[in-house]
Amino acid sequence: MNHIDDLAELYALGALDDLERKRVDAHVAACTACARRLGVAERAVTAAIEADPPYEPSPALRARLGASLDAARPRARIATVPRGWFAVAAAIAILALPVGFVMRGSMAPESGQFADANFKMMKLQTVAMSAHVTYAKSGDFYAVMVKHPMRALRVAYVHPDGTMETIGTVEMHGDTGVAVMPIDHKMLELALVDGTTVVAEADLTFD
Amino acid sequence: MTHPPADDPALERAFAARERWAFDEAYDRYSGLLYSAAYNVLHAREDAEDCVHDALLRVWNNPSAYTTERGTLRSFLAVCVRNAAISRIRAMQTRAGAQRRAGVEPEAEYVEFPDVIEQSRLRAAIAALPDEQREPLLLAYYGYKTHVEIADALATPLGTIKSRIAQAVRRLGHAMQPGAAV
User: Residue A165: CB partners within 8 Å, gap ≥ 6?
Assistant: First the structure.
């Protein structure tokens, strides 16, 4: 992406769609000049936000945020389930998870559609929904699509040390949830997260 | 561990470095502004709190989201939360449209234009804008329209709309600076 130019003011005003906004985020993370321009625009729009009627959140929000931050701290690695045991694990998971999701340890590459010289696609099987992640082999773009998600889901990057970092949220477009994430590095493992529960994981390969 | 109250630059550096105390301090200082930013878009307490919660976690969990070059943490967070609220209301509008097409009576829409812009200084600053800048600015800020939708609604080339919105925001910024004459 070239410099963001007028997109800075559009971003601050809320006049970009989600994808355009994420492109701007990715650019300003690496471009000091554009980050400064965006900061100036954000200050201008904040003056308008301050002029809107003031409200206060409930005290419960602070506690909820604290609990979420604590829950996002380093977690134990989720053991990879050997493929031969997947059916048994899935049956156990169905009984254990009230939301009805099944997590599997790895995902097989989807052959055929969408797989070309630049992109790869992985499919994830669950009981209540189907999900795919399409990603650039360069590691600079990831898109997760979930059919009929039962709840609001987050997409998290699972660091090699097992810690998780939220990199996107699944947003609804009709009955399909979509998360588009322009990221500038290769991620070997992604997770779909419901609240603080990992409901699915994807092991990604780059060749 | 306790930390003394930090001035803004110190708080911003600590937030950028993802020191946990800085998150708590930023929330204590800005939660009213952030919640107001969400509530004034969504007009529903639970949705607004969900929005603030998710937006703050998203920022905190993405180390590259905020750098001190970006400017004030306060403005960064306010715009971040407001943009998240706008994404939510656009999704609600999309769902309501789908329900309507399917013959299902949708819930009441959330979007409403204010009859009066409360703050006189802002009102004066917006009134001072040329018509061709004020209209797209209001459609974006109060109507939650994208620049593509605004160009379509006003039958004006997209590049022209982008340029007019950018100029309007810059003028607004200058007019709202302390000591500026509107």
Answer: A156, A157, A159, B61, B62, B63
